[in-house]
DNA sequence: AAGTCGGGGAC
DNA sequence: GTCCCAGACTT
């Protein structure tokens, strides 16, 4: 039976009871992640959130420790050589995130005196910080109320509240409203709900093989009650290609340049990718992105084959 | 609203 | 091989 005031799509489940049980489960089962430690800093939390954008926790954890040990504050990262930043990013993927994180550090220094703001609009204005990351930093770094809606929370609510296997491919206004309706009113409870619902999605209510037998709210889950029906949006999901894509080519180039001790001649770059035209296109794009610097050989008519490539300084 | 952007581990 | 991962940004 819906509770009074259930006007924003919480569904038939009783939200506060579910929230309480998810939070209690979190208190007993939360992972001991370094960006949750008592000595964490707001900047450290932001770094973790950017690294976790599309990269799994197990790969982020060691990188985060090394990163914060080397550049503990926004001012430290702002002053670092960009090439060092890209090398430290290593194989976390999507290296443009590393560029944006350094731009973010520089913006924090210039706009906010080196102190990360807790205002949502100020956070959103920072490079690399979108709706999810701004909300997450507000909740996890500052303990403030925000609507933290990542892939885990989306999936948990899709199942518990809507009875669907997975959320729609694209976030809708209605889904955001539903998530907002689930967030408790006060700061501390809202922050705890955000962390707990994300953790439940990461550890129990997983995309592939959910462990409903270990779920603290299995008895109130609409999806489980319906017999775990298949994903209704499956026909709209398209597998991301990989082999032979520009992304793979870019990754090969970046891996080569990260390891290089000196500018790499064009012929050596060409050795890592067989498609000449595709490689040329990707190199141009990497230069435009600011991930790679091309230096033409001295002379009147620059010869593409005589150019060298390196990471930015 | 749809495309683009890495990389690796689980299945 | 396919799918998924604490998304953001561009067009």
From TrEMBL:
Residues 51-203 form the HhH-GPD domain. It holds the Pfam family EndIII_4Fe-2S. The keyword DNA damage applies. It comes from the Bacteria. The keyword DNA damage applies. Its EC number is 3.2.2.31. Its cofactor is [4Fe-4S] cluster. It catalyses: Hydrolyzes free adenine bases from 7,8-dihydro-8-oxoguanine:adenine mismatched double-stranded DNA, leaving an apurinic site. Coiled coil: none annotated. Gene3D superfamilies: Helix-hairpin-Helix base-excision DNA repair enzymes (C-terminal), Hypothetical protein, domain 2. Keywords: 4Fe-4S, DNA damage, DNA repair, Glycosidase, Hydrolase, Iron, Iron-sulfur, Metal-binding. It is an enzyme of class 3 (hydrolase). Belongs to the Nth/MutY family. PANTHER family: ADENINE DNA GLYCOSYLASE (PTHR42944:SF1). This is Adenine DNA glycosylase. It comes from Cellulomonas dongxiuzhuiae.
């Amino acid at each position: 039976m819906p509770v009074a005031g259930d006007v924003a799509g919480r569904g038939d489940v009783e939200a506060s009871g579910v929230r309480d049980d998810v939070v209690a489960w979190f208190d007993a089962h939360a992972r001991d992640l370094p960006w949750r430690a008592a000595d964490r800093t707001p900047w450290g939390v932001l770094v973790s959130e950017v690294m976790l954008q599309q990269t799994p926790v197990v790969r982020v954890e060691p990188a985060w420790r090394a990163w914060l040990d080397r550049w503990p504050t926004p001012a430290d990262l702002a002053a670092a050589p960009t090439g060092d930043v890209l090398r430290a990013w290593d194989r976390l993927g999507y290296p443009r995130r590393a560029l944006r994180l350094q731009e973010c550090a520089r913006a924090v220094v210039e706009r906010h005196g080196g102190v990360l703001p807790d205002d949502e609009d100020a956070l959103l204005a920072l490079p690399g910080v979108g709706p999810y990351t701004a909300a997450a930093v507000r909740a996890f770094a500052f303990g403030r109320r925000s609507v933290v809606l990542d892939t885990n929370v989306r999936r948990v609510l899709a199942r518990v509240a809507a009875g669907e296997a997975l959320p729609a491919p694209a976030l809708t206004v209605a889904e955001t409203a539903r998530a907002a309706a689930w967030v408790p009113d006060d700061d501390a409870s809202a922050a705890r709900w955000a962390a707990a619902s994300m953790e439940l999605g990461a550890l129990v209510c997983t995309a592939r093989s959910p462990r409903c037998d270990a779920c603290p709210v299995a008895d109130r889950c609409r999806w489980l009650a319906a017999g775990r029906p298949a994903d209704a949006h499956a026909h709209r999901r398209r597998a991301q290609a990989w082999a032979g894509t520009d992304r793979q080519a870019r990754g090969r180039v970046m891996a080569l340049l990260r390891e290089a001790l000196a500018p790499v001649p064009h012929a050596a770059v060409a050795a890592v990718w067989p498609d000449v035209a595709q490689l040329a296109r990707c190199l141009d794009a990497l230069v435009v992105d600011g991930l790679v610097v091309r230096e033409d050989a001295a002379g009147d008519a620059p010869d593409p084959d005589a150019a060298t490539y390196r990471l930015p300084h």
